[in-house]
Write a structure and sequence with these properties.
Number of strands: 4
Oligomer: single chain
CATH architecture: 2-Layer Sandwich
CATH topology: Alpha-Beta Plaits
Radius of gyration: 21 Å
Strand content: 15-25%
Helix content: 25-40%
Strand order of the largest sheet: 2-3-1-4
Structural class: alpha+beta
Distance between the termini: 33 Å
């Protein structure tokens, strides 16, 4: 009898303990630092990879003016963009960002990721994963 119960719980998308199973697509936080004047461009570009949530923080670089002048960097105003992105879309996003950093005038920047280990709630996870079909199904 117990074996039958385990099999049926797997078919329903639940673990043997009764917890719901979630998609295997893990989420990462993509941190992108760019010139402040290019922040809107990069936010729009990153959003094209299925990113539903982004935050931008404005800051100022800490390098002394002498070093900035020697490196040919005029301003030190920066934007740090935090984006929640699915692990499956990350390689394409990083490759595209690298290409943009090389080809856009004044568009240099850095990008790296930080793993997102835990999220409370399937609806929030599906929203952040850009999984629209699952979000609508859960809300009904």
């Amino acid at each position: 009898m117990a074996e039958t119960k385990k099999t049926s719980s797997r078919r329903l998308g639940r673990t043997p303990e009764g917890h719901s199973r979630v998609s295997m697509n893990r989420l990462k936080i993509l941190v992108t630092t760019v010139n402040r004047s290019k922040a809107d461009f990069y936010m729009d570009h990153i959003q094209s990879f299925g990113v539903n949530m982004q935050m931008v923080f404005f800051g100022k670089g800490t390098a002394p003016r002498e070093i900035l002048a020697a490196l040919g960097l005029a301003d030190s105003d920066r934007a740090v963009i935090f984006s929640v992105i699915g692990e499956d879309r990350l390689p394409a996003a990083l490759e595209s960002l690298e290409e943009k950093f090389k080809t856009i005038a004044g568009g240099k920047g850095i990008a790296y990721t930080v793993p997102l280990k835990s999220i409370i709630g399937k609806s929030i996870f599906n929203f952040l994963s850009d999984n629209r079909s699952q979000v609508g199904r859960i809300e009904k």
